[in-house]
Amino acid sequence: MSARSENEVFWRADGTSFAAEYFSHPKIKDGKIVGAVITFMDISERKQREAEIRYLSDYDPLTGLQNRRHLISSRRYADKATRSHGSAGMSLSSCCPGHPRKMPRTY
């Protein structure tokens, strides 16, 4: 009967908010719930680190440009949308600057 949530936003008396996680454990006496012990934790820093990791998984930290993983993920999303809606597909070409004889690859 314990409960846990990490998708909560709590508000301080001064009007500011923070991401919170809480655990709730019932206190049982003679087979009846007579209360609960609830533990709250400020998880703002953890949420910020998680967001940073998600960003770095899709963007280059030096240039801020989208990386290959992001491109592949976007392509899969577009392909899925194309199949479900029957619309035109997406075509990407790449070529190597300075190598005019190489044929562009189409994905």
Q: Describe it for me?
A:
With 107 residues, the protein is an alpha+beta fold. Helix content is 31%, strand content 35%. Strands 1-2-3 form a 3-stranded antiparallel sheet, covered by helices on one side. Strands 4-5 form a two-stranded antiparallel ribbon. Strand 2 and strand 3 form a beta hairpin. It is elongated and about 60 Å long. It starts with a strand and ends with a strand. The mean pLDDT is 83.
Fill in the keyword field for this structure.
alpha+beta; two-stranded antiparallel sheet; elongated; 5 strands; 107 residues
Q: Short summary of the structure?
A:
By secondary structure, the protein is α+β, with helices and mostly antiparallel strands. It is built from 2 helices and 5 strands. The strands form 2 sheets. Strands 1-2-3 form a 3-stranded antiparallel β-sheet, with helices on one face. A two-stranded antiparallel ribbon has the order 4-5.
